[in-house]
Design a protein that fits this description.
Radius of gyration: 25 Å
Strand order of the largest sheet: 1-2-3-6-7-8-9-10
Order of helices and strands: HEEEEEEEEEE
Structural class: alpha+beta
Shape: elongated
């Protein structure tokens, strides 16, 4: 290879590297702009498979806090027995970190109470506390899709009739799927 060809090859590699570097910088900037546009602060309503919730997203969704409510449901068993599931309310708080321009992963904690009766028609109060991990995808600045997973759950149940309290720990047994609309 003569000197002229080596010079052209070197210039081509340098030029390609500069273009690639400039392209990377623009892409990174576009990514930040997309992230900022998709993850604005504001209030949201969340709909899950068994709950409705209200949440507040901080700027860039760095933090999310909110409350959820599970409504009463009832069903007939064997045509005559009624099973009523409890009303539950909980609060949650989550710290989020960006994975991509559309996705954040969050680490949070929840605390809730259930009130009502079970199939035995006994009054009870149940306290639930758990850490959780969430993955949230911002499809648009207003529509968010999420899934969460509880690695450990602490449950304390108190029988309102007898006063007997039971405590249980469960592992890898809970989570949710939801859609949220941010105003």
């Amino acid at each position: 290879m003569n000197i002229l060809q080596k010079g052209i090859l070197t210039a081509s590699i340098t030029l390609m590297g500069s273009v690639a570097f400039a392209g990377g910088a623009v892409s990174s900037s576009d990514s930040n702009t997309t992230f900022d546009r998709l993850h604005q602060s504001g209030a949201a309503v969340q709909l899950g498979t068994e709950f409705i919730g209200l949440a507040y997203y901080a700027s860039n969704h760095k933090f999310t806090v909110g409350a959820e409510l599970n409504p009463i449901t009832s069903s007939k068993v064997d045509g005559s027995t009624s099973n009523t599931s409890p009303v539950s309310a909980l609060v949650f708080s989550r710290y989020n970190m960006p994975l991509t321009s559309h996705v954040v992963v969050g680490f949070g904690a929840m605390y809730g109470r259930e009130f009502g009766n079970k199939s035995s028609n006994k009054e009870f109060i149940t306290t639930v506390a758990a850490p959780y991990i969430a993955l949230e995808y911002s499809a648009t600045p207003h529509i968010l899709l999420a899934a969460s997973f509880r690695p450990v759950t602490y449950v304390k149940e108190e029988d309102g009739t007898t006063g007997i309290k039971t405590t249980t720990w469960s592992y890898i047994n809970g989570g949710s799927v939801q859609i949220a609309y941010r105003f």
